[in-house]
């Protein structure tokens, strides 16, 4: 399903680029949606994909780190853009983010480890609430690059935070709410009828999201000082 969605997005992007190549890249382009950026407020939606991992800091120096395997997840959400001044906008982009990570623990943490001790699968369903500032460059024809930066809060619907079980019962727990800062770049491409805006963004966790096990000497959590999510996000936005 993810592959099909990505192929659809790429097809739309390539088709749109081909249809508008004359107006975008020609010497004297036809200016599309010339007054769009003067709107006080406008809306849109985005589709995209992500890749999340963890930044883990330890209480004591370790010889073998916990390894994180990550896979690509899927993003979908809405965009509200408020114009503050000519080249500065405020954006609110609430979205649903699916992510999957697998933690691989080193065997030397356990006396007689089994496979179930060494692996923890962490499936996350985030509702992301980012508040971002968009700094746009001068528009050239039908292209306008921009920078993004701001903060966000993630509500993890799959956190297991209320579970009474912990890693001893093979239940890995993280906090329901976490905070992040986000930085990214993108480009607005003005077609005849809409704006296509691909962007790349990094999301960096500020708050520790790990819930420790009940056992203070737990091999899964006792030596972890903090565990913070990091995400690589690619979004295709349509206005």
How would you describe the overall organization of this protein?
It is a single chain. The chain is mostly beta strands. The chain has one domain: Porin, CATH 2.40.160.20. 11% of the residues lie in helices and 51% in strands. The protein has helices spanning 2-19, 21-25, 115-118, and strands at residues 41-58, 67-70, 72-85, 88-92, 95-104, 119-136, 143-156, 177-190, 195-205, 224-238. Strands 1, 2, 3, 4, 5, 6, 7, 8, 9 and 10 form a ten-stranded antiparallel sheet that branches. Mean pLDDT is 85; it is low at 17-23. This is Outer membrane protein beta-barrel domain-containing protein.
Strand content: over 45%
The level of helicity is 10-25%
> What is the average per-residue confidence, as pLDDT, rounded to a whole number?
85
Helical/strand content category: mainly beta
Low-confidence stretches: 17-23
Number of helices: 3
Domain Outer membrane protein beta-barrel: 35-209
InterPro entries: Beta-barrel_OMP_2, OMP/PagP_B-barrel
Protein name: Outer membrane protein beta-barrel domain-containing protein
Pfam family, one: OMP_b-brl_2
Q: Main attributes?
A:
239 residues, mainly beta, Porin, elongated
Layout of secondary structure:
Elements: H1 2-19, H2 21-25, E1 41-58, E2 67-70, E3 72-85, E4 88-92, E5 95-104, H3 115-118, E6 119-136, E7 143-156, E8 177-190, E9 195-205, E10 224-238
Pfam families: OMP_b-brl_2
Keywords: Signal
Domain Outer membrane protein beta-barrel: 35-209
């Amino acid at each position: 399903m993810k592959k099909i969605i990505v192929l659809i997005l790429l097809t739309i992007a390539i088709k749109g680029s081909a249809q508008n190549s004359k107006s975008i890249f020609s010497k004297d382009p036809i200016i599309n949606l010339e007054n769009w950026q003067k709107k006080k407020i406008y809306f849109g939606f985005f589709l995209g994909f992500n890749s999340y991992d963890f930044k883990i800091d330890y209480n004591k120096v370790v010889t073998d780190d916990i390894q994180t395997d990550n896979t690509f997840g899927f993003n979908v959400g809405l965009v509200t853009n408020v114009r503050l001044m000519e080249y500065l906008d405020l954006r609110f982009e609430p979205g649903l983010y699916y992510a999957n990570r697998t933690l691989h623990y080193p065997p030397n943490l356990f006396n007689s480890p089994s496979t179930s001790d060494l692996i923890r699968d962490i499936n996350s369903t985030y509702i992301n609430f980012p508040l971002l500032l968009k700094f746009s460059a001068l528009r050239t024809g039908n292209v306008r690059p921009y920078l993004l930066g701001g903060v966000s809060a993630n509500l993890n619907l799959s956190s297991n935070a209320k579970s009474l079980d912990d890693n001893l019962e093979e239940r890995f727990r993280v906090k329901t709410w976490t905070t992040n800062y986000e930085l990214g770049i993108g480009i607005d491409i003005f077609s005849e009828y809409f704006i296509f805006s691909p962007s790349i963004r990094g999301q960096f966790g500020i708050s520790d999201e790990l819930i420790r096990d009940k056992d203070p000497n737990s091999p899964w959590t006792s030596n972890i000082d903090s565990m913070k999510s990091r995400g690589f996000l690619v979004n295709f936005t349509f206005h």
